[in-house]
């Protein structure tokens, strides 16, 4: 089965991990600092590494002080964790519809959803295409809300010449194997606000505080620490950070290959009937995590099943979050975000990853053509 996404691991990656295993540190050592510094250069903002992308979202919401009674506006066209981690903290999630073409959070829908209880606005860079952050920033500032970017798909992307990582108050990344780079499991939180970043660092480190300047008791000794707020053990170990630093050295190559593959899809699928291709806005330079097409005419399930039967691992990204029983049981109803639901009804992700060969991509293209032209 040709997968829709897959990691690229080289001998250099293996050597980096092996060196970490042979060192004195397996977790929370020098490789963590190295990876966070390497990541900062790409993201454009200081970063704190965490154990996965879901942990990154949970940490970002916690750093923003989200809790019971707060409202968080976000998109339904995402993996459930973008909303679920806010729900875990006791917040009420308000789903705003997406733009019809990009499937990103629609600023107009966000503006209509703002209330006096709005504490955060969380956008998702769907498929690697950044959301409209300049417009979202104006809305967030007007509402005195924290702007959060779920950039799990988008490390390496830029918006109006600015790197993802600098566009929101807090930005989260995921380094799952199918993402643009991998640490096996892993994630990160970025922020240009030192106070928010420090809150994120403390939360991911079980809430431990050691800085003498902020301890309530300073006479116990150099071993002393305090837990002043709740936190969780979301640390990313040295072994995985070593893999991440090695992967970051090839991020430019990863982006170039994904761009070339996306361009080939654009060229060779342009005239296929019943098929709508993804858009890229002029002011965006995306690192494509997904290549999401839309299968029109009510044929998405048929195409999905026939592509899978042909050994091509297409995928659907994503089920509208409020369709899940977790949110149905909280009173959310289908029909509330029509653009998102229309997108979901047609969406299909084609294989896209660094090691996808032109020959394998040609097989994807020809198989899809055959199905849709029959």
Automatic annotation (TrEMBL):
GO MF term set: pyridoxal phosphate binding; transaminase activity
GO terms for biological process, alphabetical: polysaccharide biosynthetic process
Cofactor: pyridoxal 5'-phosphate
Active site: 179
CDD domains in the cross-refs: AHBA_syn
PANTHER family according to UniProt: DTDP-4-AMINO-4,6-DIDEOXYGALACTOSE TRANSAMINASE, TRANSAMINASE
Family from the record: Belongs to the DegT/DnrJ/EryC1 family.
Protein name: UDP-4-amino-4, 6-dideoxy-N-acetyl-beta-L-altrosami ne transaminase
């Amino acid at each position: 089965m040709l997968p829709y996404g897959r990691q690229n691991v080289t001998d250099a990656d293996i050597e980096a991990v092996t060196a970490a295993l042979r060192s004195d540190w397996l977790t929370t050592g020098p490789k963590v600092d190295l990876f966070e510094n390497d990541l900062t250069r790409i993201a454009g903002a200081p970063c704190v590494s965490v154990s996965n992308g879901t942990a990154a979202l949970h940490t970002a919401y916690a750093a923003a002080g989200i809790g019971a009674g707060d409202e968080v506006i976000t998109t339904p066209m995402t993996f459930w964790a973008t909303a679920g981690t806010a729900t875990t903290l006791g917040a009420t999630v308000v789903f705003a519809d997406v733009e019809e073409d990009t499937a990103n959070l629609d600023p107009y829908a966000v503006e209509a959803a703002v209330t006096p209880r709005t504490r955060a606005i969380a956008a998702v860079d769907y498929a690697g295409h950044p959301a409209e952050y300049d417009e979202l920033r104006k809305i967030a500032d007007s509402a005195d809300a924290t702007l959060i970017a779920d950039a799990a798909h988008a490390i390496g992307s830029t918006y109006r010449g600015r790197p993802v990582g600098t566009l929101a108050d807090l930005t989260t990344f995921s380094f799952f194997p199918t993402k643009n780079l991998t640490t096996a499991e892993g994630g990160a939180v970025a922020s240009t606000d030192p106070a928010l970043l420090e809150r994120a660092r403390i939360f991911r480190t079980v809430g431990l505080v050691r800085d003498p300047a902020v301890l309530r008791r300073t006479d116990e000794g150099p071993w002393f620490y305090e837990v002043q707020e709740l936190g969780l053990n979301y640390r990313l170990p040295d072994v995985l950070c070593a893999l991440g630093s090695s992967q970051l050295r090839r991020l430019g190559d990863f982006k170039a290959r994904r761009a070339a593959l996306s361009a080939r899809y654009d060229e060779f699928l342009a005239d296929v009937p019943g098929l709508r291709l993804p858009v890229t806005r002029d002011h965006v330079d995306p690192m494509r995590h997904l290549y999401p097409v839309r299968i029109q005419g009510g044929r998405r399930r048929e195409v999905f099943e026939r592509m899978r039967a042909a050994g091509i691992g297409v995928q659907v990204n994503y089920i509208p979050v409020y369709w899940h029983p977790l949110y149905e049981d909280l009173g959310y109803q289908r029909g509330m975000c029509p653009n998102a639901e229309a997108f979901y009804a047609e969406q299909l992700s084609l294989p896209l990853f660094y090691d996808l060969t032109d020959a394998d991509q040609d097989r994807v293209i020809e198989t899809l053509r055959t199905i849709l032209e029959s």
